Amino acid sequence: MPDVVTMDKIVSLARRRGFVFPSSEIYGGLGSAYDYGHYGVLLKDNVKARWLEAMVRERDDIVALDSSIILHPRVWEVSGHVEGFHDPLVDCRTCKLRFRADHLDEAQCGRKPSKRPGETEDCDLTEPRHFNLMFKTRIGAMEETGVDAYLRPETAQGIFVNFKNVAQIARRKPPFGIAQVGKAFRNEITPGNFIFRTLEFEQMEMEFFVPPAEAEEWFRYWVDERFRWYTRFGIRESHLRVRPHEADELSHYSSQTSDIEYLYPIGWSELEGIAHRGDYDLSAHTAGSGTKLEWVDGEERYTPHVVEPAAGVNRSMLAFMVDAYDEEEVAGRQRTVLRLHPGLAPVKVAVLPLIPRNEDMTTKARALYEDLRRAVVAEYDDSGQIGRRYRRQDEIGTPWALTVDEQTLEDDTVTIRDRDSLAQERIPIAGARALILDKLAQDWTTPKVD
Ligand code: ATP
Description:
By secondary structure, the chain is an alpha+beta fold. The chain has 13 helices and 23 strands.
């Protein structure tokens, strides 16, 4: 069955169910920033938690870090960002729009009929100019005595400048990694496509420090490993691909990069980049700071090379939502369902009394809910028709719903409804919590076929 999903449907679901709102909406919105509502926060937190688990908890060779957003301004000079972190932009003197020179074939001209910038006779494009993407700010109370600083455009530099601390104090020997999740800021020329490209976003980056001779091998390892993370959490393999960068696309620090791309409704686009950064960063910060960032063990001394998988939290969340989105007709009625991996689903289980007016049912349901929520994110809902309550849970991707009905009052069993198969089974209330935890621990594959 062909995919029914479009970006408009995702934006509308995200808004309708309170995942994502346009930022500062009552002032007309900003267009390039978004606010995350209740289910958006839960989903985004789950994306980060699953990443941290895979990177840190399930391994012996990676530790966590949370560095500052504002670093010493020298960091960005030495890292090459002040000089080299820019996009080429062109302005159209006619329609006054601004485009990324390297993305012209994906852009739309501001005049009707809409064409690519430069395609109509009236288009009057400037020569490309370099535009630095870093947001500048000032440290200090006084305008005159303050110091210019930047909001970090990537989390990676906070890791490099802590290399020595972590290597010494965490007693790590290469190959080892440092993982960090946090906000990054870029003054993007053309933000857009919902949460795909925004001015502020969250990154999940891991710098893996290795002996130089092993870097190639680790690079391939991390491309495979990261690809598998997306399929493990439900993305169809046919909607993912690895695209090696051409030499002229490489960032200033990278000798080799492959992007993991996802087939978004806007087409194949970057989800994550895996870069072979060589010794670029540690050598630059050694020269810039005078602190030797190298590995020393007896006779052994070298500057480790770095392999970096850098993923976007918001872009991943969008990909997970897009890939999970489904519409189908059940018993003559249309339903929209997010077939999210249970580990990502914002709410794991809903508890629903079949007849909300029946106090015995609501009391039992409420007690079950209070027991479940001690272990997982659960929701209690006693408003409206049962069918409508199921639909609501389907739309936010809740994998299981427990319904308290007449029979519950007789034998303390409830039905468990599966979001994807719609199968219903009776289970004892006493075993409900253990059953949900057991289901959550199991491997899961998406029921969606291409
Ligand atoms: P792009 O080419 O799309 O601008 P990039 O190659 O500059 O991205 P990286 O510097 O490799 O991106 O950043 C790592 C990850 O951070 C990206 O794969 C993406 O998931 C995320 N990311 C980067 N810029 C943004 C943004 N403006 N909004 C949301 N996520 C972003």
